[in-house]
Specification:
- The chain has 122 residues and is an alpha+beta fold.
- It is 21% helix and 36% strand.
- It is built from two helices and six strands, in the order βββββαβα.
- β2 and β3 form a beta hairpin.
- The longest helix is centred in the last third of the chain and has 16 residues.
Length: 122
């Protein structure tokens, strides 16, 4: 008989997109140890896979030619019973305006978009 997964309330989901990968982790509020973490790698290619570690066990699922969107949907599908307080995304390059952590509010997003547009025209 299957049991329902435990409900994790008050957690934070952190996402980091790379050039061909998507990393994610679920942390309990105030905790440093992950509840669940994973990596979708080689996205867009025939060898793309999704690795998820939960309760000390790792599962590997082939996701051939998967996009970031598809990989994220698959990852979220494994987050049954998780009720996050928030979701964070790591932005590596914040231009000259941001040299440390910042909350991604409207001002921050507009500034990053402006920096990106300026860089594209150089």
């Amino acid at each position: 008989m299957e049991t329902d997964p435990p409900i994790t309330k008050g957690c934070l989901i952190v996402i980091n997109c790379g050039s061909s990968s998507l990393k994610f982790a679920v942390f309990p509020e105030g905790g440093e140890t992950t509840v669940l973490k994973g990596l979708a790698e080689r996205l867009g290619g025939a060898e793309a896979v999704l690795r998820i570690e939960e309760n000390g066990e790792t599962t590997v699922t082939p996701i051939p030619s998967a996009s970031y969107h598809t990989a994220l949907k698959k990852a979220v599908g494994r987050m049954t019973g998780i009720h996050p307080l928030g979701i964070g995304h790591r932005v590596v390059q914040g231009g000259e305006e941001f040299t440390g952590s910042a909350i991604g509010d409207d001002t921050v997003i507009t500034t990053i978009q402006s920096e990106s547009n300026q860089e594209a025209t150089r």
